[in-house]
Specification:
318 residues; alpha+beta; Rossmann fold; Tumour Suppressor Smad4; 2 domains; 12-stranded mixed beta sheet; 6-stranded antiparallel beta sheet; 34% strand; disordered N terminus; nucleotide-binding; kinase; ATP-binding
Length: 318
């Protein structure tokens, strides 16, 4: 493929832009970029050019809200696209998983968010040229998809302080501070946070605790570079439940610090479980998207999503 013409053919501000290097036998790959992700607006066209440089002709569409993104993804599936490339943060990729799981369509990952947690779990480089090379090489691995009350997630569902932090963070703060936005807001949240009473029901029994933080992890990473556990994997068919400390703030801080340093904090692992938060509605963060719920039913779809991964990718070692 020659690369002499890298100018997009435009049909309007919100219409797709076709990045092509001339005649090609392959249909253009749909490239959906979340304009509201941390770097989406700035890097959308750069991402299309980087894909072109790697040998992939892409049709770029910016999405501005979850509804338009989901429609574009489902249209791609109905049109028979063999793969779709999504540029954005973990929320965008979680939405893509909801639309693509079980379809056989391969997801190409362009990490344009703040933490880029899923990209880390599947070994995708965090720089655009590296991520585009992975997509162009075409290696595919099937990974697990979690479901919380039917809604797909790739990384984790969280109750407690992290959900309150995610609810408090603004797009502007994340753009300005990146990963540092979390500890900046976290200290303020922790000073006012009340411990939750949580009952976790799973195949092996029931566990009731009072704590400031519960994480249910699907992937190897749950928040940027923070691992769920040293042996966690997005292909093991299990959800890992982490409970960080008890109702005392010092206990939470010790547990959170130890976990961040690599100490194992998983209390149980299961393919399906329920979480009951004392009968009241609580905030839950699902791959960064926050909502209010009373009861959580978490399930796992084993090997449900095809993803482009680097050659030689091994989930347990990334």
């Amino acid at each position: 493929m020659t690369r002499t013409d890298v100018r997009p053919e435009r049909e309007g501000r919100h219409d797709p832009a076709l990045y092509t290097a001339g005649m090609t036998a392959a249909a253009p790959v749909p490239l959906l970029v979340n304009r509201r992700s941390r770097r989406g607006e700035a890097l959308g066209h750069e991402a299309a050019h980087a894909l072109l440089h790697a040998g992939v002709t892409a049709r770029l569409t910016f999405t501005d809200d979850p509804g338009s993104a989901e429609r574009a993804l489902r249209e791609a599936v109905l049109a028979g696209a063999p793969r779709v490339v999504v540029g954005g943060g973990d929320g965008s990729l979680s939405l893509a998983a909801h639309a693509l799981a079980g379809s056989g369509v391969t997801l190409g990952v362009l990490p344009l968010g703040t933490g880029n947690t899923f990209a880390r779990s599947v070994g995708v480089p965090l720089d655009l040229p590296g991520a585009c090379r992975v997509i162009a090489e075409g290696h595919v691995r099937r990974v697990d998809v979690g479901r919380l009350n039917g809604r797909a997630f790739l990384n984790s569902a969280a109750l407690g302080t992290s959900a309150e932090i995610a609810r408090t963070l603004t797009p502007e703060l994340k753009r300005r501070l990146g990963l540092l936005a979390w500890p900046w807001v976290g200290l303020k949240v922790l000073l006012r946070h009340r411990a939750l009473q949580v009952t976790v029901t799973h195949g092996g029994g029931q566990l009731t605790v009072r704590t400031h933080q519960v994480l249910v992890a699907n992937g190897r990473y749950v928040a940027g570079p923070l691992r769920a556990a040293p042996d966690a994997s997005i292909t093991d068919g299990l959800l890992d439940v982490l409970i960080l400390g008890d109702a005392r703030v010092p206990s939470f801080l010790r547990a959170a610090t130890g976990w961040a340093a690599g100490r194992r904090s998983v209390r149980l692992s299961a393919p399906e479980l329920r979480v009951h938060a004392g009968g009241s509605r609580v905030w839950v963060s699902v791959d960064g998207d926050v909502s209010s719920v009373r009861d959580l039913r978490l399930t796992l779809e084993r090997a449900a999503l095809n993803v482009n991964v680097p050659a030689g990718y091994v989930p347990e070692t990334v």
